[in-house]
Specification:
By secondary structure, this protein is mostly helical. The chain contains 7 helices and no strands. Helices cover 57% and strands 0% of the residues.
Amino acid sequence: TIHRRCCAVYVGIRRSKPFHHHYLTMKTVAAILALAGSAVAFAPSQQGSRASSALAEKPFEDALGAMAPLGLFDPLGLVADGNQELFDALRERELKHGRVCMLAVVGYLTTAAGIRFPGAEDIPDGLKAFPALMETSSGMNVLYQMGAFFAVAEIVNRDATWLDKEPAEFIGDYRNGALDFGWDTFSEEEKFSKRTIELNNGRAAMMGIWGLVVHEMIGVSILPGGYLPGQ
């Protein structure tokens, strides 16, 4: 065995009468380490096979959004136990935040481009729009309307089982038998592709709006021409 060979090498060198004791001692250690390394290199990799099996059996590895190179990105192990109910709840929240952030990015860039509703030409863009609206009664009315819209959107954007007897086709399906736009004419592959596009665009938008707001707060522009909203 490798262990016996290592011992034989060590005993053989010890029995010889070296001229430089320390030098041969170092050679002994090097020889033993080399033999041990060879044994490890040619030994069957049981740990690697176990890791591959664990990866293949990872829950939700083939779920929507589990894409290369990260696959299912769950660093905290929230769904490592395969809890389908928790996975669906987290996916619904991810979709909702992504949809809101896609609208936020579009709104942020639209106002940064100078586009305003009639009567709001003097309202600044960026985060300074909120304190500017609070300074006037008409501006406060706009904020109240925004709050009402958020409340209605939160109520409407859900699976309304009392309106539609058909269950939702997937998590985040809020058509409720009313909105379709040709969705039912798509193949299963096309549906999966479009849902993946929406999910990834939402993920990018979440990072995008956060980047826009942070750069505005620190006073560094990332927009074309060096324009900085809120100034």
